[in-house]
C-alpha cells in the first residue's frame, strides 16, 4: 500500500527550500568576461565622474563676466589664446577678454566658467591674432559638465548581487575595474530519468519520446545564472540511478532530476532518496502543474526531484530552483517578480490547487494584460515556448473571466532577471 502524500502550500514548500539557500563563493574575472555575471560586492565611486569640469560642446571657453554686455548690436570681442582638444589641458591662464578654443570632453581652462558653442561665435583673424565675437551674454556655468555631476566620490555605484548588464559594464570600466569580483556560478547537475527517453538526435520509435526536459532545464539553469552539468539519461533502474547520482553529487552544488517522482511502478526517486540517506523536505505541493515536485537534502545539498511532465518540470524549476540559484548569486530578491495583470481570456477551470498558468503578459497604456498560452496541461511543451509569465490562480477558486485582475509572476527575460 502506497504511503499517502500530503500536499503542502506552495509558500511553505518554497520556505522549506530556502532554508538551505546559501550565498555562493566569489571569484575574480577579467572585465571582458564580466557581462552576464553577478557582482560579489558593493561598488563605491573612488573618484568623481566627470573627474574634472569639462566642455560638453565644441566651442570656446570664456569668462562669463566678459560677455555681460554682449548684444546683437554690440558684440563682445574676445582673443583666442589657444586651442585644446579632449585629453589635453590648457597651458595658459585666461585673462580678461580672452577665450580658449575647446573641444567636447576637454577640461575647462582655469579662469573660464562658461562655454559658447562653435555655432554661436564668429571667429576671425586680425594682425596675426585670433578673435571671436559673441552677440549674447552667457552666465557662469553655462554649457559646462561639472566634476561629479554624474557620480560623486563615495556614492554607491552598484550593489552586491547586481546583474552585470552593458550599463554596469560601462560603470566598471569607468572606475578602472580591469577585473571584477563576481559570484561563482553554481554548478547544477541535471539528470533525466526514464526508459522512454531518446537522445535529441535519435529518430522516434514506438513508445519513446525525446528527452526535451534536460535541454529545457539546461536553458533555465543558464538563464538564472548558473552552470548546467549534464548527467545524461538515467534508466528506470534504482541501482543504476543511485550509482550515477552518488558519483555526480560531490561535483555539483545541487542536483536536478526530472521524472520518476510520482507513484508509478518505475518512479524510483523516493527509493533513491531513502537509499542515499537524504531527508525529504516535501513530496507533494498544492500546485498545478508540478504537484509531485519533491525536494530532499543531503548534508545541506539540495536534490530537486522535478516532475517528468515538461510544464510541471519548468514551473518547478522557476519556483524552487531559481531562488536558490539567485541567493547563491547574492540576490536580495531571488524569487520571480510578482505583479498584477488583467486577464484577457476567460479561465473557467476549477483550481483545487494553486494553478500556475503559462501566460503571455503584455503592457498597454501602463497596464499589464495576461493571456494564457497553449493548453493548460502539465504534459504540454508548446505553451512554454510562448510564455513570459505565470498567471497564479489561488487554490479553491474557479471561474476567472476576462477582465479579472490576477497575480502574475514574470519569467526572466533572456538578458538576466526581470527584477
Ligand atoms: N496514479 C497517479 N498517477 C500520476 C499522479 C498521481 O498523483 N497518481 N500524478 C501525475 C502527475 S500530476 C504528474 S506531473 C506525473 C509526474 O510523473 P513523474 O514526475 O514521475 O514523471 P514520469 O512519470 O517519469 O513522466 C511523466 C511524463 O513526462 C514525460 N517525461 C519524462 N521525462 C521527460 C523528459 N526528460 N523529457 C520529456 N518528457 C519527459 C514522460 O514520458 C511522461 O509522459 O505523474 C502523473 N501520474
Ligand atoms: O505535477 Mo502534475 O503537473 O500536478 O500535473
TrEMBL record:
InterPro entries: MoaB/Mog-like_dom_sf, MoaB/Mog_dom, MoeA-like, MoeA_C_domain_IV, MoeA_C_domain_IV_sf, MoeA_linker/N, MoeA_linker/N_sf. It comes from the Bacteria. This is Molybdopterin molybdenumtransferase. Its cofactor is Mg(2+). Its EC number is 2.10.1.1. Pathway: Cofactor biosynthesis; molybdopterin biosynthesis. Residues 189-327 form the MoaB/Mog domain. It is an enzyme of class 2 (transferase). NCBIfam families: Glp_gephyrin, molyb_syn. The keyword tRNA processing does not apply. Signal peptide: none annotated. Keywords: Magnesium, Metal-binding, Molybdenum, Molybdenum cofactor biosynthesis, Transferase. It catalyses: adenylyl-molybdopterin + molybdate = Mo-molybdopterin + AMP + H(+). Catalyzes the insertion of molybdate into adenylated molybdopterin with the concomitant release of AMP. Belongs to the MoeA family. It holds the Pfam family MoeA_N.
